[in-house]
Amino acid sequence: MQAASRESYAAARAQLDSYASSAPAGDVAATAGDVLGAAVLLGREPSLRRALADANRTGADRSALLNQILAGKISEGAAQLLGALVSGHWSRPTDLVNATERLGAEALLASAESSGQLADVEDELFRLGQVVAGDSRLASAVGDTTAELTRRVQLVGDLLAGKATPVTARLAELAVSGFEGRNFDGSVSRLVELAAERRNRSVAYVTVAVPMTDEQERRLVAELARRYGREITAKVTVDPEILGGISVRVGHDLYDGTILRRLAETRNALAGRN
Fold it and tell me: Which family does the record assign (predicted)?
């Protein structure tokens, strides 16, 4: 998003936080569903999203248009949040669609926070990503955008049945449909990061060849927290194919000290001498 869109989203997000701080978790979750439904509507109706992002119309006019279309179909909380969104300034109509989808996801996370389940949601999403990534046939089935979406959603729903919170299950549906235009793996990672951000943490994706001890993980998290100046939540994947060493990714920063990488560098260096 460009600056204008980011500012508009920040204003709507602040309104969400204010609403979620006093509303029951169930009401917040229902509001999230309404907001996500609006995102789907905007995604499939180009003329509507252009009208609601039209800088030549006043924010009040755009908000009134949205209310006219959705009156009686969504909750009051959702109407207020969506009104805040469309009354902002958007650099592109697609920014409004992405912002609506993200606000719906944030509302789901806010409902989990209100019910004390936010850390559980974060861990469940990460484990789901690991399960899918660890099975090539499953990953292919979930990520096959040529297949019917409802079938792919059902596949992931079956994986989570009885093993995850309702919020996790709904966020997993978003991941299957391609949250913010990402593939399934990227969508899950982004949702994990949003959950961590709501807990004022950054996510460190750690890959090791053998499981870390609790003490090793504690020392790593402490060092990363010192380096980044905030709390860190570590998401550890064991991958014997890296042979040894450790890889750590925090945001756009990648620290790759794996033996696999060193062998690749050595191989490339030797090839360059020939």
Answer: Belongs to the ATPase delta chain family.
Strand partners, 203: 233
* Residue in this structure with the two tokens 């969104």, named with its chain if needed: 85
Please write the tens of the pLDDT for every residue from 96-149.
999 999 999 999 999 999 999 999 999 999 999 999 999 999 999 999 999 999
pLDDT tier for residue 188 given thresholds of 50, 70 and 90: very high
Whole-number mean pLDDT of the chain? 93
Q: What would the 3-class secondary structure string for the chain be?
A: CCHHHHHHHHHHHHHHHHHHCCCCHHHHHHHHHHHHHHHHHHHHCHHHHHHHCCCCCCHHHHHHHHHHHHCCCCCHHHHHHHHHHHCCCCCCHHHHHHHHHHHHHHHHHHHHHHCCCHHHHHHHHHHHHHHHHCCHHHHHHHHCCCCCHHHHHHHHHHHHCCCCCHHHHHHHHHHHHCHHHCCHHHHHHHHHHHHHHHCCEEEEEEEECCCCCHHHHHHHHHHHHHHHCCEEEEEEEECHHHCCCEEEEECCEEEECCHHHHHHHHHHHHHHHC
pTM, to two decimals? 0.89
